[in-house]
Design brief:
- With about 200 residues, the chain is an alpha+beta fold.
- The protein is built from 7 helices and 7 strands.
- It has helices spanning about 30, 50-55, 65-75, 105-125, 135-150, 155-165, 170-190, and strands at about 1-10, 15-20, 25, 45, 80-90, 195, 200.
- The strands form 2 sheets. Strands 1, 2, 3, 4 and 5 form a 5-stranded mixed β-sheet that branches. A two-stranded antiparallel sheet has the order 6-7.
- It is globular.
- The relative contact order is 0.13.
Length: about 200
């Protein structure tokens, strides 16, 4: 139903980074969702009859519509093929809709709309139920990693929005702690400073 490839980030006609994934074919939501590293529609080829059969379409007029579309597709897909081939160049434009600081309020509001719609979808199809905790935790972790922890501009706002909708799920709290520790040590290594009880352990 879906084939996914790697991509390059390009700025001023020069590659900035390259992202490729391990080859594999996955056949159900529990296995597909953890393998999705980015919710970009443009790194994937979609079977038209698959999209039509499941009435998959974009939510008009909002940012982050890719997230909603990709997760819904992952739920309905019978097969999801990932290839290591790097087949797409993404050109970075500082003034684009996703980077322009002037459009931050709209991005904040639109992310809330996306999360609300995802929550409604997850309840409708049975992802969020007390008796399917494993599936539920996979879903929560995926949303946190893709909507919150990797979003540098909206991080705190996204996290608060996430909590309002999904509550303080134990999987989320554990993951949040892990991300905080990882970020602290990355920043500490960059500054060559690790402080514990008032002492710099770097020296």
């Amino acid at each position: 139903d879906v084939t996914e490839c790697g991509y390059k980030m390009v700025s001023k006609n020069k590659p900035v980074s390259c992202h490729s994934f391990h080859n594999g074919i996955y056949y159900n939501f529990d296995n597909i969702l953890p393998r999705i590293k980015k919710c970009f529609v443009w790194i994937r080829l979609w079977r038209s009859d698959f999209l039509k059969k499941n009435s998959l379409q974009f939510y008009n007029g909002i940012y982050f519509e890719d997230i909603l579309f990709v997760i819904q597709a992952a739920y309905y897909a019978k097969s999801w093929n990932i290839i290591s081939y790097v087949g797409y160049n993404y050109r970075i434009v500082p003034t684009s809709s996703t980077n322009d600081p002037k459009k931050r309020d709209k991005r904040d509001n639109d992310l809330f709309i996306v999360l609300e719609n995802l929550y409604s979808f997850a309840k409708k199809v049975g992802i969020i139920k007390d008796n399917v905790k494993n599936k539920q935790d996979i879903f929560y972790k995926f949303l946190y990693q893709n909507c919150v922890s990797k979003n540098k501009v909206l991080d705190n706002h996204c996290y608060q929005t996430y909590l309002k909708i999904f509550g303080k799920n134990p999987a989320l709290i554990k993951l949040r702690r892990k991300v905080f520790i990882q970020r602290y040590f990355r920043l500490s290594l960059k500054k060559k400073k690790i402080v514990l009880f008032g002492f710099n352990l770097w020296k």
